[in-house]
Amino acid sequence: STQSTGRMKVVLLLGLVALSSSLLVNKNVKRTVDLTTQLAKTKAVVDVENAGPGSANVYEIAVDSISVDNLSYIAVTQAGIKLSLKKVSDGLYEATLSGALTAGATTSLTVEMSFTHVLEPFPKAINQPDNQLVRMHSNAYFYSPYDTTSQTSTFKLGTSKIESFTPRLPSKKDGSSVVYGPYSGISAKTSAKVTVHFENNAPFLTIRSLKRDIEVSHWGNVAVEEHYEMTHTGAKLKSQFSRLDFQRNPIGAPTAIKSFRTVLPASSRDVYYRDDIGNISTSNLRETDDANELEIRPRFPLFGGWNTKYYIGYNVPSYEMLGSNGNNYKLELPFVDHTYDNMVVDSARLRVILPEGCSDFEVVYPDFEITREPDEVVKTYLDTFGRPVLIFNAKNLEESHIQNIEIYYQFNSLMLYREPLLVVNAFLIFFVIVIIVVRLDFSIAVDEDSEARQRVSYLVEELYNLVNKIKNTVSDEYVELLKGARSSKDLKAFKSSKKELEVLYKQLLDECSSVSKKIVAFAPTLTDRVAELTRREGERKSIISSVSALADKVQADKISRSAYESQEGPLLSKLYAAQSNIEDALAVL
After folding, report:
1. In three state form, how does the secondary structure of 466-507 look?
2. pLDDT, tens digit (0-9, with 9 covering 90-100), for 482-506
3. For 452-471, what is the mean pLDDT?
4. Helix or strand holding residue 180 (H, E)
């Protein structure tokens, strides 16, 4: 049948692949294991020969079971070109060669791996001034699914203080390195467990949790905020921490982590470094042409087993990460960034918050395993249906994973003006409501007493203005008229001025009388006070008449200078006293 024929083809194909694989031979392997930091970085230069009759297109890489769970990064290059790598199963990968390896041909491959948490502090607890000793369990051989003709493994320790290493002839200590080999005729998947015990005071700092939030704005800004939970995973502090000893001799605590350097984009601005307490002022930002370097200095030095939590944030121009072609957009950003040298990240979570209205997402992942959670929606200011949030997770990362993730999406450019229009409409509606409210009368019934009080208040104010006008334009002018009569004998001008004052005075008195009657009509309780004001005004009228008569005598030279002076002073004093009494009566009213 068709199904059975298909199965036979698959089996035959798998058999051919297996046959092709078995014909590859590692002619020579030079393997270097770098243990100078908290990471174990292996680099194996493998000369591969195709000893079979057919060509080979793939090369398999196997990871020893001793450290397969700690594998963080793996890469294979051929002549400087990074090869495509596919994970077949846990601990087994296939690299696609840049070209078919024909029968009898050889090629050189470079296999690089990084392992986390394989360096074990031993002893597990030390005193504050002690150096840290670590040990690593590894394989003296290059673990491979192929036979190996010749190989050498060199463990670089970065120190000559080597406590011990497992002897396996031939092996030797060579300065700050331990060399195993050369070994010949090693069969496929052969293991030879060895342990290296040595001094390592490198920072053993692990990011237990990294939560990275990227908020994209099409108005020209991308906001980045990163939350860190860190642990010093080196040897724990056996005794109690002595701040005095540490301050006296900071280098006397070789395993303490006092600060580290975080690299930010060169265009980053508005950088902040905070924790739950608040801003941490011990940080220092150094700007260079290529990047901004932020010196992170925790509130306290970190010893083995100690934890710290903090978060940093900054803004970058959107053109650094965002590109567009019409309504099609591309966001490209690193999944993780450089937190410190030789960093280890146990768990990383990336949240990308895109503008409201984005849709049709497509993601291009870097060449390591990333899982995507269901999208979420978050609402912030001026949002109506919320902003889409894309969430990604990854585990067991290190510096080699600083690779870009690309997110493609669509966004209608007209949506960019939606929020400004919302603000304009909100203000427009607000002002329309205010205009309507101030023009409406929400009172249930007319308050006659309140209206009467308002009218009386208005009439009293009008009366006050009239009385003041009499003082300023009549009373004071009569005084000036009296003084002018002494200096000028222009009878015609004198009579004209006097006539105008008499007419104005009579008009103002009539208006005062009319307003007073209205006040009494609306507020009968004010009758006595209005009468008192009227009486006081009558006194002033009488005095003004006396001033006018004296001015007539002076103008007609019917009074001597001494008689004038004896009458002027008392008369003006009476006038000023009358005006003061009128002001008091007004105040009572």
Report:
1. HHHHHHHHHHHHHHHHHHHHHHCCCHHHHHHHHHHHHHHHHH
2. 777 767 667 777 778 878 888 888 8
3. 85
4. strand 177-186
